[in-house]
């Protein structure tokens, strides 16, 4: 794992993400690229008037100072840190930076959900997830020493998930995780017989050239099945696939991936289809 990208907004959530990234960087001898977006108006940036140019330079220097102070933390001791400041917020730039620096992972903090308020949907984390071609690890709470051992990868085992499944296996191998593929069977229109499930999984595994045993779990919804099984399995991470600009994978129907990312108490990692 050569490089890890951590988008920062100086919040408690981004510090939680930075702490997890530091744990991974120390274990894998990685560099952390901390990315801060200034969110300046494009008209100000491109203006030739002296006042706006001076104002831009002032804000840039202020951001550099604040970032330097934010990065002065004991848990970053011994970790190679490279700060990157962008003038305005374009989430596709995260992917461009990842490609330029051959990054293996983006680690991002998120509020998740608070009561009935869904803060992940439409949030910065969700926007980064939609654009990133590298895995995005979403962290929602403080983790002192991130040493994951198990990951549940939830899938509907449709063929368009093959690439994401392979990326999940590569990610698990990189972190030396025990990965458990999961299929959740639900009642109603999405119900499949045992025979249909085994046929679907067998075809998928044949194409994926994979022999892992897939856990078939019964529940009233895919989201609840993933969360319940992850808890029963004592998983450290939940893996799900994404459809890029279309958002998180909808599996059978509805925004199931987004619901899982919102309501999971453990880190969620996304893999682009």
Automatic annotation (TrEMBL):
Signal peptide: none
UspA domain: residues covered: 1-140, 150-271
SUPFAM superfamilies: Adenine nucleotide alpha hydrolases-like (SSF52402)
Pfam family membership, one: Usp
Protein family per UniProt: Belongs to the universal stress protein A family.
The name this protein goes by in its record: Nucleotide-binding universal stress UspA family protein
